[in-house]
Amino acid sequence: AGQRRTSPGIAPGRIGDVMRIVVCVKQIIDPELPASQFRIDAESKRQRPNGHPLVISPYDENALEVALTLKEKTGGTVAVVSAGEPSAISALRKGLAMGADEAALISDPALAGSDAFGLAVALARGIQKLGTPDLVLCGCESGDWADRTVGPILAEALDIPCVSFVAQVEAQDGRLRMRRVVEEGYEIWEGAPPLLLTILSHESNVPRYPKVKDIMTASRRSIPTWSAGDLGVEAGDIGKAAMRTEVQQLTLPSRESRCELLDGQPAQQVTTLITRLRERKAI
């Protein structure tokens, strides 16, 4: 099922000759690690890095692929920006190796403990420092906390419309045409920049593998690191002092399993199994 909608609140306009796209990326502990290797810090209520591999949050990579595809088809520039630890430089270098034109890191001890609202403030200032964008892309949720709020809050901070859970984006006649996934199918939205989109994974946005020469080139690129002060962000807008949401408790789920061998002949075992499953309301 599909519907055609023109997003409300978007001023009529067209994509210019050079579309400026900014992609927000987050560096996280590889979510494919076995659960047994994750550790929780009781004080900070965060995962302990413990030397585990760090990667770009998966949906953020999908967003980057959307940006690079649009750039190839319509021209323009792509910038990647991240707010996090100094180690996030490696995530930004991967973005450059994939084809982004520039990158910037927002890193400051004052950001520690920031919730989605604080991160959105920092990201908004960083994006504005890069230059007024036509399009901002974020993953639809983070791969560590499954947080779906940073994108919409960032759109509010930038004072631009937001379309969430977008699977495909095309530029047509100076405007953007988006396929948005909903429970009953999908909707087709159209709008003119500036816009912020949160991106789902789709067969059309599978992240590309960077070439070795591009990885080597990216490793030599200079990436600016901005503090909160560099961006004019006040201490009261970020960090624990600005938290509007609080994590009360964070624990790893415990999984217990046991095996029971059923006695009797196959037919009797089947009957017993069905009875047990019905008792547990599994069937």
Task: Summarize this structure briefly.
By secondary structure, the protein is an alpha/beta fold.
Description:
The protein is of the alpha/beta class. It has a 10-stranded mixed sheet with strand order 1-12-11-10-13-9-2-7-8-14, sandwiched between helices. Strands 3-6 form a two-stranded antiparallel ribbon. The N terminus is likely disordered.
Topology:
Elements: E1 4-6, E2 20-24, E3 27-29, E4 40-41, E5 46-47, E6 54-56, H1 58-74, E7 77-83, H2 89-98, E8 102-106, H3 116-130, E9 135-139, H4 150-158, E10 162-172, E11 175-182, E12 185-191, E13 195-199, H5 212-219, E14 225-226, H6 266-279
Parallel strand pairs: 1-12, 2-7, 2-9, 7-8, 8-14, 9-13, 10-13
Antiparallel strand pairs: 3-6, 4-5, 10-11, 11-12
Features:
283 residues; alpha/beta; ten-stranded mixed sheet; two-stranded antiparallel sheet; 14 strands; disordered N terminus
Annotation, overall tally of beta strands: 14
- What class, by secondary structure content? alpha/beta
- Contiguous low-pLDDT stretches (5 residues minimum) are 1-14
Q: How large a portion of the residues is in β-strands, by DSSP E? A: 15-25%
The helix content is 25-40%
For the largest beta-sheet, the strand count, sense and barrel status come to: 10 strands, mixed
CA distance, first residue to last residue: 31 Å
Number of helices: 6
